[in-house]
Amino acid sequence: MKNRIWLILTLCLSVSTLKAQNNNVLFTYGKNPVELNEFKRVFFKNNDSTKVSRDTASDYLNLFIYFKLKVQDAIDHGMDTTAEFKAELEQYRKQLAQPYMQDKEVTESIIDEAYQHKIDEVRASHLLIKVGPYDLPKDTLEAYNKIMGLRARAIKGENFDSLAKKYSEDPSAQENFGDLGYFSAFDMIYSFEQAAYSSNVGELSMPVRTRFGYHILKVTDRRKARGENRVAHIMVRLDALATDAQILRGKEKADSIYQLIQTGKISFDEAVKQFSDDYPTKEKNGEVGWIASTNRQMPIEFREATFSLKNIGDMSKPVKTKFGWHIVKLLEHKGLPAKKDVYESIKSEIYAVNDDRANANRKAMIEKIKKEYNYTANNKNLQAMLKKADTTLTNGKWDAAKITTTKPLFTLGNNTYTQAQFSNYLSSYQTAQNTASPAGLMERMYSDFVDKEAWEYEENNLPNKYEKFKNLLTEYYEGILLFNHTQKTIWDKAIQDTTGLKEFYENNKSKYQWKERIDATVYECTDEKTAKNVLKLLKKGNDDTAVSRIIHEQNKLGLNIKFGRYQKGDNANADLANWTKTGIQNIGKTGDKYIIVNVKEILPAGPKLLNETRGLVISDYQMKLEKEWLDGLRLKYPVTINEVVWNNFLKTLTR
After folding, report:
1. Which of 245, 451, 488, 566 has the fewest CB atoms lying closer than 10 Å?
2. Does 338 fall in a domain?
3. What are phi and psi of 121, to 5 degrees?
4. What angle separates helix 438-465 from helix 83-97, to the nearest 10 degrees?
5. Sign of CA dihedral 480, 481, 486, 489
6. Please, what's the b/e burial string for 312-343 (b: 16 or more CB within 10 A of its CB; e: otherwise)?
7. For 153-158, what is the mean pLDDT?
8. SS3 helix, strand, coil % of the chain, rounded to 5?
9. Which of 477, 487, 478, 385 is CA-nearest to residue 438?
10. How many distinct structural domains can be found in the chain?
11. Closest C-alpha among 189, 214, 210 to residue 127
12. Is residue 343 a part of any domain in this protein?
């Protein structure tokens, strides 16, 4: 977001300097003053203070002035009052608040534990008996007794896998017998992860409570973390409903590609470009990126193939997953980094995963907030509310109008929170909990209400406590306004104003010219025999579809066809053709390929049609609209620069 905000500054133009006198104000635009300290904060944040020159500062001042003009114009158009703007700013405000809303001691403890868990990978099986977080005590007890009974049977010798398949309420147990495979920190719910890492191999845990219910788990293996591999792959895609015959044909193609690479007839990278069906990775030589052995987003067959490779450059035989056939190549391996090197990534992951690990820190922080702002509860008024709890709450149909009294429930800092506010909270956050008791559910929701209000009280007070936070929030406020206003005034207008765009194109047509081109088809053959067959087929009048089909039957990987309209330099093989005549031209061997070019038409130099150069025309039209906008802003918000303040600042720069 920061890059997005300040990148837009480069769209700005310069402004002329006027004289003003004020010891603190650097410049004014309209009636709005901007102090030197604000400019210096932004300037040195985006420029190395040891390398800036006076010219750099002057250029940046011009950018900053127009930044301020555009933001003010957005405000004057009411863009800061829209629901969309407020929602976006609120989203960023909460993100910015995260570093300030943490208990440092608790954070350090959680980070250390997560890193220790990353050292090993645990394999475990589990058995689940479902029970909801708000279920009645009798239902919770019933689930607990049931799972304890199953645990006793396992301890007496019954096969755990069989018990999981028969009794577990995790649907996947029907296929995997409760086996969850290997996992590490953050792969499972925190309480489940803790139980697994605190159990010995072969040991059966006591029941573990999660939001899903009660689990018993059995650790079946523990191994040192295998680290991460950076890999590339070639994929022969299979349809989700592929038949056995289609699967076999896919394997045959993958085997053919594998043999070509193994025998040195083609490189892995070239095979990716010619044959891989994974288009997001095709332009990156097949690179998938870093894969952890416990990464459940990747099919297990792919992961196992990845970690079976021992040396950099090793390549797997074709391996099948639900997506197709893959040939995997190992590019790089790394073990578990030192804690200091992954500290920030672990910290980010803790708060990205909304489980008890993050909640432990949240609870500790809430207690600090309550203490700092002198939280005081009125238990008498709470008990009066609990008596009004009924089944409308457990059915998810609580009406906020049921309680409208403004009797206080608690105070925090300068705020008082009333029964009516809590009633509104119940109405807004209720969900049907038919197995819970009304009073019990209301009491638990009251605790959540207190926590929510305490958290928001601190978040809202951050600008008053931390100057850095206040400045960051201002940057986001202005940056979002600038982006939205520029998009509406320039970018969207340039696309939607078809009449203006066409007129601009007609007035500037000489800028958009084609060089001489040919309309041609290029045939790249892997061997001379294939090239001769292609020539014969073309001379007999076969079209490209027929040529491709016939050659594919003879040699699945023998031909690659490319067609288009080319200027010199667009296609190296098309450049080899004689551009003065049309027809089929046998270029011969070029590198490791045999090239044939069919020149269908010679296109002379001339103007591009609007639809052929729309992107460039739109870009130029945007620049025109930008200049007109900025010229208008200069008139709307006259700028006066305090030359004394500015020159004194320039003297402080080294160059």
Report:
1. 245
2. no
3. -110, 135
4. 80
5. positive
6. eeebbebbbbebbbbbbbbbebeebeeeeebe
7. 95
8. 55, 20, 25
9. 385
10. 5
11. 214
12. no
Per-residue tokens: 298: 């990747």
Question: Which structural domain, as residue segments, surrounds residue 25?
Answer: 1-76+467-510+622-655
Whole-angstrom distance, CA of residue 47 vs CA of residue 653? 12
Q: Hey, is 219 helix, strand or coil?
A: strand
* Position 432 in a domain: yes
SS3 334: strand
531 and 602 both lie in a single domain: yes
Considering the domain architecture, whether residues 474 and 601 belong to the same structural domain is answered as no
Question: Same structural domain for residues 168 and 70?
Answer: no
pLDDT digit string (tens) for 102-132?
Answer: 888 888 999 999 999 999 999 999 999 999 8
Are 459 and 527 in the same domain? no
How many angstroms separate the CA atoms of 85 and 485, rounded? 11
CATH number of the domain that residue 305 is part of: 3.10.50.40
Q: Which amino acid is at 334?
A: K
Find, among 616, 613, 519, 513, the residue nearest to 566 by Cα: 519
Predicted local confidence at residue 51, as pLDDT? 81
Q: Indicate whether 439 and 525 sit together in one domain.
A: no
The pTM of this model reads: 0.61
Q: What is the pLDDT of residue 50?
A: 77
User: Each residue of 81-97: pLDDT tens digit?
Assistant: 999 999 999 999 999 99
DSSP string, 358-420: HHHHHHHHHHHHHHHTT-EE-HHHHHHHHTT--HHHHTT---GGG-----EEEEETTEEEEHH
- Please check whether residues 476 and 454 belong to one and the same domain: no
What is the b/e burial string over 95-111, where b = at least 16 CB atoms within 10 angstroms of the residue's CB? Answer: ebbeeebbbeebbeebb
Residue 330 token pair: 């190992």
Residue 171 to residue 153: CA distance in whole angstroms: 21
- Is residue 471 located within the same domain as residue 453? no
Element (H, E) at 454: helix 438-465
| Residue 106: inside a domain | no
